[in-house]
Design goal:
- The structure holds two protein chains of two kinds.
- Chain A contains 13 helices and eleven strands.
- Chain A is α/β, with parallel strands linked by helices.
- In chain A, strands 3-2-4-7-1-8-11-10-9 form a nine-stranded mixed β-sheet, sandwiched between helices. A two-stranded antiparallel ribbon of chain A has the order 5-6.
- In chain A, strand 10 and strand 11 form a beta hairpin.
- In chain A, helix 6 packs across helix 10 and helix 9 packs across helix 10.
- Chain A is globular.
- By secondary structure, chain B is mostly beta strands.
- In chain B, the strands form two sheets. Chain B has a five-stranded antiparallel β-sheet with strand order 6-5-4-7-8, with no helix packed on it. In chain B, strands 2-1-3 form a three-stranded antiparallel β-sheet.
- Chain B starts with 16 loop residues before the first helix and ends with a strand.
- The relative contact order of chain B is 0.22.
- The chains are: A alpha/beta, B mainly beta.
- Chains A and B meet through helix 4, helix 5 and strand 5 of A and strand 4, strand 5 and strand 6 of B.
Chain lengths: 382, 129
């Protein structure tokens, strides 16, 4: 069975807030669900599938009850920030199999208002927890080794932030709207070597939601049709410490699976949403997805090649996690939303890619340098 | 400068008890599979490579090289350097580098294990040779 062409993203909504101390997390989930339904032109009673991850208070059972849903299919897979890219693939599978016909996927939370609960740990806890792995230093280790093996430089990484900032200036909701230079990035304080503050994404409250449905329903709605044509997912960890290699991610497996199912190549892609928890995350994913060879990511992103209108691969035209939004420290949802905006022609005119009919939304979740998952979604304008 | 850090006490379990018993006497143990010959870390009862249950404890030399690292410039307990060490025996493990100039660390540098106390079993760390 393939999901190719079987599922359409009929509704999208990104919460405009970046700081929501006066709202509850469940409330934010409900607000984004409402927003996505309105965008799709559907009502809550139409929903028969629900997908959420670890950010949903109480999990799927609590959320389904809180939202007043009546569902016949649900999935609360949690793979950190890429959970929603996984959910989109799983929703497409469920729709293709007839298990549901209108699926809701929500993300929301408030890390800007207060610290997030610690992530759950497995059998490794006694052997790793004491060493203080955070996102910053674990992604820092990946960057350090990538620089060692391939000569990647901080200047090259900085270009990723520069490109994101060029896009964020047009996004009225972006947390950081100032255009920055490579020098600005290099002069920002070192957080965890070799990553500077401007190599890191923003911390924001907020959320987003998607409505995924089958062709017959999508075609009856008013919005331009965007459909899933390929999906891949994968996981990677240190695996007993054998042949450790931090310079590639599980994207080397999820990407080819998605491209093969879609029947397209990286070179065909007009717009790419690439998870940007840190600049190094983007660089490694571009290599892993096949936009350039392993080790050549630095050269690929330099000189503004990710800037819409001038670069060869427009990326994260909303400003991404580096400048606009990284709700709940989980960037997968907003990656999908901006890709759909591009395919609908609804991106800001200054960053809209002309005739954007094929896009990729891709992300990793968990900790890139330790244990993580990856999910790649190929989307096209129908 | 080392800030005094209180490290978490390993909880231990039946599968890993021999490892923590060994750290109390200053030994770093790894597991080796006698079916496929591969060593691994952290220790499991079933080999992550061939899925055999023929795994045995083996004392590591405690010597290795830095695979990668990152110096966290600020934290509640001061700066610290996380990294992976590739042991002479093969497996790589996550650790912190201690008792050294954290700004002088280099990929490929030779390091050796040192143990730091907790309220229970001591924890392995690494320091440049």
């Amino acid at each position: 069975m393939t999901i190719k062409g079987k599922a359409y993203i009929a509704g999208i909504y990104e919460h405009p807030t970046r700081h929501a101390p006066d709202k509850s997390t469940s409330q934010l989930h409900a607000e984004v669900a409402k927003g996505a339904l309105e965008d799709a032109g559907l009502s809550r009673a139409d929903i028969d599938g629900y997908f959420c991850a670890g950010d949903a208070p109480g999990g799927a059972m609590a959320m389904v009850d809180y939202l007043g849903l009546k569902v016949r299919h649900f999935d609360s897979t949690d793979t950190g920030g890429c959970s929603y890219l996984v959910h989109l693939g799983h929703a497409a599978e469920a729709i293709a199999a007839g298990k549901c016909s209108i699926a809701l996927i929500t993300l929301a939370g408030k890390p800007r208002t207060g610290a997030m609960p610690p992530r759950a740990s497995g059998a490794e806890a006694d052997f790793e927890a004491a060493y203080g792995a955070t996102t910053h230093n674990v992604y820092g280790m990946c960057a350090m080794r990538h620089m060692h093996d391939y000569g990647t430089t901080s200047e090259q990484l900085a270009w990723i932030k520069v490109a994101a900032s060029h896009h964020a200036q047009y996004n009225e909701h972006a947390m950081l709207r100032d255009v920055v230079t490579v020098e600005d990035v290099l002069n920002s304080p070192m957080i965890s070597d070799p990553l500077h503050r401007m190599d890191c994404c923003v911390v924001t409250d907020g959320g987003g939601a998607l409505i995924v449905t089958k062709a017959e329903i999508a075609k009856s709605l008013k919005k331009p049709q965007v459909r899933m044509i390929g999906h891949g997912e994968a996981m990677k960890g240190p695996r007993g410490g054998k042949d450790l290699d931090l310079t590639y991610s599980a994207g080397v497996w999820s990407g080819p699976r998605a491209f093969e199912e879609a029947g397209v190549k990286p070179a065909d892609i007009k717009y790419a949403s690439i998870y940007d928890s840190f600049t190094i995350t983007v660089l490694m994913q571009l290599e892993d997805l096949g936009f350039c060879k392993k080790g050549e990511g630095g050269k690929f992103v330099a000189d503004g090649n990710l800037i819409s209108g001038t670069g060869k691969l427009p990326f994260n035209t909303d400003g991404g996690g580096l400048c606009s939004n990284h709700p709940v420290n989980r960037g997968g949802m907003t990656k999908i939303i901006e890709a759909v905006r591009q395919l609908r022609g609804e991106a800001h005119p200054k960053v809209q890619v002309p005739n954007c009919d094929l896009a990729v939304a891709h992300g990793t979740g968990g900790l890139l340098g330790v244990r993580h998952a990856a999910s790649t979604c190929i989307l096209e304008r129908a | 400068m080392e800030t005094t850090v209180k490290y978490p006490t390993p909880q231990g379990n039946p599968e890993t008890k021999p490892f923590w018993d060994a750290t109390a006497s200053g030994k770093l143990m790894i597991k080796r599979c006698t079916a496929c010959g591969e060593p691994h870390y952290f220790p499991r009862s079933i080999c992550p490579f061939c899925f055999s249950d023929k795994t045995v404890w083996e004392e590591s030399s405690g010597e290795g090289t830095i695979y990668s690292f990152s110096l966290m410039r600020k934290s509640a307990t001061g700066p610290y350097a996380i990294g992976y060490v590739t042991l002479k025996e093969g497996p790589s493990l996550l650790t912190n580098f201690v008792d050294c100039d954290l700004h002088g660390l280099k990929i490929g540098q030779k390091v050796k294990v040192v143990f730091k106390p907790t309220d229970g079993a001591p924890l392995p760390f690494f320091t440049p040779v």
